Amino acid sequence: EADGNADGSGRAARRDIDMLEGVVYDRKNMTYDELYNHIVDTQSIVTCCIDAHFTAFQILSPKFLIYYDPMNPSLRLVRGESQVQHVALYFLLKCNYGDNVHIQENKNYYVGNSSSELQLTVYRLWKKINT
pTM (2 decimals)? Predict the structure, then answer.
């Protein structure tokens, strides 16, 4: 066909689309604070299973997060920067998507004098989940 597409639809063939671009779906070799900043910067959708239940979330901005809760029929909205951090980090930790060994071996990175509020939140949530 003249449009370069054998089905004659008039649409150009799109072989360069990566359907997983912008989706976090498996473990990353990043600290949890780096991973959190990455998903904020890229507005990635994060998907995983927690206790055999599929869930997904996306941070629309540092103050707004939407997520799918398998026990609820509609999307949920989280508002406020600290609440967004808490929910996103909880999901990332429960999914084991970041570097858990780094937390275990580098406590001072998370709770030291130069640690950020984000790093402190990571450590507190990790400790709560794992003790």
Answer: 0.81
